[in-house]
């Protein structure tokens, strides 16, 4: 389709040979290694076959329609969909946690390292949306900073050393599956891809698919490339006004067929852009269907709660029902903060919902107790199960 393939160049290797490996592996790890040299793409225009262009346009229209439909619903669905996108993007990197654990981590409670990393990815996704009007290298670094600042602040920023993908436990790039460009090339390549991302003359789905593939090929960071690269997708959707209100969990669609997704990235590096465009189109349709089912389930649950709760309209208990959809694990201080009421009023609201069997207490001392809306947790876990990787 007329897209330039990645070139390659050799660099000297000064790292130590792993003495714990076989003699053959040690010999393979000596001497220069080969690193990618991605093309500059800022001024290139992809040639998209007519049939694929029609599919991309239809998908873009479906994204905008979903965003408008869900954005008009008076419920905190944007926060829910942001979390589901973040969790799915993290699971592509094999970071998994249940909805309950993620909600506990958001509350600042111990929930395991994966849940904490997923919550960090929520911050990165939110940063992507907040910075969408200004797609620059600095904003991409800000997204990665939101992802890593708590657990790996030393890895924030464009990398200053060679990295590689795959290769097992080897401590050299010689046996890696893919060796991204030498770090000296990264700043210029990042300027180039972000210039490409800001263009306004391209069909959006192919545009963001190619920008994402180029970003992953550059691999600009020492850590967080996949999650930040998928945050870039959300930023581009918002930047180009395809979405305005909610985060459509495209990563949930990619997660279902991760093998195809990674194969498409490899094909992109050979100069074939069709597979990655096709993957994003298919992933978007899957994500819209899955998210629609989640939203429908949450709205039905909200109406059912209304019949259970004996409290006046506008009361703290009624208002807390809306909060629970996006924060299904709560303690009294957080409820008071979110509702803007006193500790006593928040405790009374939770007691009302507990009596109506909307929430149930988690184990723990009374003074530090939390409550969960199990039905919301179940809906979120069902969403994750539908999206879970097949390959």
From TrEMBL:
Pfam family, one: Fic
Active site: 219
Residue ranges constituting the Fido domain according to the UniProt record: 135-283
Positions with a binding annotation for ATP: 223-230
Region Disordered, annotated ranges: 18-40
Single GO MF descriptor: ATP binding
Superkingdom of this protein's organism: Bacteria
Keywords: ATP-binding, Nucleotide-binding
InterPro entries: Fido, Fido-like_dom_sf, Fido_containing
PANTHER family: FIDO DOMAIN-CONTAINING PROTEIN, FIDO DOMAIN-CONTAINING PROTEIN DDB_G0283145
Protein name: Filamentation induced by cAMP protein fic
Encoding gene per record: fic
């Amino acid at each position: 389709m007329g897209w330039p393939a990645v070139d390659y160049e050799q660099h000297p290797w000064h790292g130590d040979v792993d003495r714990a490996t076989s003699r053959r592996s040690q010999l393979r790890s000596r001497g220069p290694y080969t690193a990618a040299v991605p093309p500059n793409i800022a001024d290139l225009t992809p040639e998209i076959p007519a049939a694929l262009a029609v599919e991309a346009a239809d998908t873009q229209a479906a994204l905008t329609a979903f965003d408008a439909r869900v954005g008009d619903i008076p419920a905190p669905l944007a926060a829910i969909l942001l979390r589901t996108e973040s969790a799915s993007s993290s699971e592509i990197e094999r970071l998994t946690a249940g909805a309950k654990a993620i909600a506990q981590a958001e509350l600042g409670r111990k929930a395991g390292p994966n849940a904490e990393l997923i919550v960090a990815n929520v911050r990165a996704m939110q940063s992507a949306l907040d910075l969408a009007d200004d797609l620059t290298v600095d904003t991409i670094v800000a997204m990665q900073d939101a992802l890593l600042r708590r657990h790996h602040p030393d890895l924030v920023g464009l990398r200053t050393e060679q990295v590689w993908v795959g290769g097992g436990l080897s401590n050299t790039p010689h046996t890696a599956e893919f060796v991204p460009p030498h770090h000296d090339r990264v700043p210029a390549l990042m300027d180039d891809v972000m210039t490409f991302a800001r263009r306004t003359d391209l069909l959006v789905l192919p545009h963001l698919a190619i920008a994402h593939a180029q970003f992953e090929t550059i691999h600009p960071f020492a850590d967080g490339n996949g999650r930040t690269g998928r945050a870039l997708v959300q930023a581009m959707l918002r930047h180009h006004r395809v979405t305005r209100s909610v985060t459509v969990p495209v990563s949930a669609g990619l997660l279902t067929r991760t093998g195809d997704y990674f194969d498409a990235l490899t094909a992109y590096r050979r100069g074939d852009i069709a597979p990655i465009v096709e993957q994003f189109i298919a992933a978007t349709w899957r994500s819209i269907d899955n998210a629609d089912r989640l939203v429908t389930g949450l709205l039905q649950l909200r109406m059912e709660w209304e019949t259970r709760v004996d409290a006046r309209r506008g009361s703290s208990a009624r208002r807390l029902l809306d909060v629970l959809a996006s924060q299904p694990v709560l303690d009294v201080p957080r409820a008071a903060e979110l509702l803007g009421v006193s500790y006593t009023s928040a405790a009374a609201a939770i007691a009302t919902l507990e009596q109506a069997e909307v929430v149930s207490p988690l184990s723990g001392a009374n003074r530090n107790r939390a409550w969960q809306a199990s039905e919301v947790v179940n809906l979120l876990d069902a969403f994750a199960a539908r999206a879970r990787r097949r390959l």
